Amino acid sequence: MKRARSTLNELGERWENDTESLLWHVLGLTLSVTGGAIVASGLIGWMYGGPDVLTLVALGLVVALVGLVLWQRTALPRQIRILDVFVTVTLAWVLLTIVGALPYVLTGTIEAFDDAMFESISGFTTTGATVLQPIEGSGHPVLAGDHPVDGWHGRD
Q1: Is 133 exposed, middle or buried (0-12, 13-18, 19+ CB in 10 A)?
Q2: Which of 24, 102, 109, 156 has the fewest Cβ atoms within 10 angstroms?
Q3: 123-138 pLDDT per residue, tens
Q4: Dist CA 109 CA 116 (whole Å)
Q5: Residue 126, class by beta-carbon neighbours within 10 Å (0-12 exposed, 13-18 middle, 19+ buried)?
Q6: Cis ω on the peptide bond leading into residue 51 (within 30° of 0)?
C-alpha cells in the first residue's frame, strides 16, 4: 500500500496533504467499482440483445478508467482525521449518485436528470421508491436489479 508523501514547509514543519489524498484515493476506488458495475450492466444488456449496450459499456469503461487513474495516483495518509472521513464519505455518496444517474440519462430511460438522480439515490439506498412507470418496460440492464449500477448492491 502506498503512503502519502510529506513535504517540509518554509518553517521546516512536516506537512502531509492527507485530506486530498484520502479523498481522491477513495473517490477513485468508488469510480472504479461503479464503472465496473456499469460495464457488467452493459454485458447483461448484450446477452439479452439490448439497444444500449455500447452506451453502457463505453460509459462504464470511461468511469472505471478515470477512477483507476485517481486511485493509482494517490496514496493513503498515515493518519486519517475524523473530519477527513466525513468529507470523503459525503463526497463519495454525491459522486456515486451523479455517476449512477448517468446510465439512465444516456440511455434515455429517464429524461430528466433530477429524476435520474432520485432513481440512483433510491437504488443505492435500497428504498424501493422509483420514478420508472411501468418498470417492466425499462429493459434488461435496468431490470438487473432496477438499475444498471445500484442493482448490484442488493435492491429488491
Answers
A1: exposed
A2: 156
A3: 888 777 777 776 555 5
A4: 9
A5: middle
A6: no
- Residues with Cβ within 8 Å of 72's Cβ and at least 6 positions away in sequence, in order, are 28
Higher local confidence (pLDDT), 90 or 74: 90
Average pLDDT over residues 62-67: 97
pTM of the predicted structure, to 2 decimals: 0.73
Looking at residue 132, its pLDDT comes to 72
Grid cell 470511461 in the structure block, residue: 62
CA quadruple 82, 85, 89, 90: dihedral, nearest 10: 50
Residue 145 above 60 pLDDT?
A: no
| C-alpha pair distances (Å), 127 with each of 33, 41, 82, 115, 153 | 21, 20, 28, 15, 12
Closest among 49, 44, 32 to 145, alpha carbons compared: 44
Reported as type and span, the H/E element at residue 15 is strand 14-16
